[in-house]
Amino acid sequence: MRAIFVRKEEFQVRLVERIEKQINDLSRFTATPGKGTTRLTYSKEDLLTRNYIKDKMMEYELTVREDGLGNIFGKLADTVKDAPSVLIGSHFDSVPNGGAYDGPAGVIVALEVAALFAENRLRPIYPLEIVALIEEEGSRFGGGLMGSRGMAGSLSEEDFKSLKDEDGITTIEAMSKIGLDSSLPKKRAARTIKTFLELHIEQGPILEEKNIPIGVVEAIVGITQLEVTVEGKAGHAGTTPMDRRTDALVTTANIISRLPDLAIEEGEGTVITTGRLHVFPNGANVIPDKVVFSVDIRSGKEEHISRVIKKVHELIDSYQDQGFQTKAEQLLYMPPKILNEEIGALLKEKCADLGIPYCSINSGAGHDAMVFSDVTDVGMLFVPSKAGLSHCPEEYSDARHLANGVQIFYEVAKRLTEV
Ligand code: HGY
Ligand code: MN
Ligand code: MN
Ligand code: MN
C-alpha cells in the first residue's frame, strides 16, 4: 500500500523509531508471550506496563500521579493554577490474546506529544495532561470503560468496589496486590478537563481500503453488555434419560443460536456477539446445571439497541416454564455518541495544514472518548489497521501513521493549551 506521510525529515524518522521502540517494549508485557497481548487490569503485566509509562512520563518532565482506580496521569507543570487540562490519552489494558496497538498506540502518541512540548520548552497556559486508562476492555472485571467511567462519575464508588473477577478477587484486593491505593480520589470534576483527545487504531478496514492515513471520528456506536445466566439441573450423563434433563448448556446453545437474527432483523449495522461463556460444573460426564455468557449489542441508534435488549429478555424468559431459571444482568449501557464538532473541525484544519489526507469516520468500537464526551469536549483520530484486524495477535498499524497523529495532536494541543 503506498503510504501517505508528511514530508520525511530527520525529526519524523526519529519520531517513528521512538514510537516503534515503545510499541515493541510494551508488547513484551503480556501473560501470553507468542500468542498476542494479554494484559489484565492490576495484573503483573499491568504493573510492568504502568512502571514503563510512569518512567516515560518522568523522562518527559511530567508530574506523575495515579488516582484511586489506577489511572496514570502525567501533567506538564501547572502554569495557571487550577486551570483545566487538555487531556490526551487512551487505555493500556487488553483483551485476552489481543494485539499490541489497541490502547497503547494512543498512550504512546500522547506521550510523544508531551515529549515535543518538553523538547520545545513550551509553557502552556492550560496544562497539558497525559492519561493512561485502566480496564477499558472489561476483560477482568466485565463491562469495560472502567477507568474513564470512574473518572466521569458514571461508575459509582460502591459499584467499583463490588466488582470481582472470575476468581472472586475484588478490584480493591487486586489493586492492593500491586501496591495501588484505592482510597485515592476517583471521580474527576468535569471543570478540571478542558478537552479530551484520543488517538486509536481503527480496528476496521475503511482507512486502509481508502488509502487515507487519518480518520477524524464523528460518532461512536452505542454499546450494551449483558451477562446472561441459565440455570437447569445437574445430573449424571449416563444414567439420566433424555426426557428427564434440564440441561443448561443445550438451552444456552438454543438461545445463542437465535441471537444473530435479532440483530439482522434490526438491520442498520446492528450487531450482537457472545464472546465469553462459562459452563458449570464443566465436567464431561455431568449434565451442566449453569451457564453464564456475555451478550454484546451495538448499533448507531439507541432504538435498535433497546429493541434487541427487550427481545433477548423475552427469549431467555421463554425457557422459565421449562424448569430453567434465567436472568440477564446489564454490565454496561452506553448510548451512541456524537463527538464535538468544533474539535473535529480543528483536527481537520491541522491535518490540512500538515498536508495529511483525512476523512470523517464513525466508530463501531467503543472507546473511552465516548465516556468523556459526557463531561467535556472530545476529539478522536483513527489510524489504519492492517487488513482491518484487531483484538487478535495479527493487529498491526504503521508507526508512521502514529507519527502523523503525534504531529496533528501536537498542533491541536498547542492551540488548546494556548501556548
Ligand atoms: O469493545 C470495544 O469496542 C473496545 O475494544 N473495548
Ligand atoms: Mn481500545
Ligand atoms: Mn479493544
Ligand atoms: Mn433506524
Automatic annotation (TrEMBL):
Residues binding Zn(2+) 1: H91, D102, H200
InterPro entries membership: Amidase_Cbmase (IPR010158), Bact_exopeptidase_dim_dom (IPR036264), Peptidase_M20 (IPR002933), Peptidase_M20_dimer (IPR011650)
Q: Which UniProt keywords apply?
A: Hydrolase, Metal-binding, Zinc
* Note on how the cofactor is bound: Binds 2 Zn(2+) ions per subunit.
Gene Ontology molecular function: any one: metal ion binding
- Keyword Hydrolase listed? The answer is yes
Can you give the residue ranges of the Peptidase M20 dimerisation domain? 222-320
* Protein name per its UniProtKB record: Zn-dependent hydrolase
PANTHER family, per this entry? ALLANTOATE AMIDOHYDROLASE, ALLANTOATE DEIMINASE-RELATED
Q: Which coenzyme or cofactor does it need? A: Zn(2+)
Q: Give residues annotated as binding Zn(2+) 2.
A: D102, E137, H391
Say which family it is in: Belongs to the peptidase M20 family.
Q: Does the keyword Transferase apply?
A: no
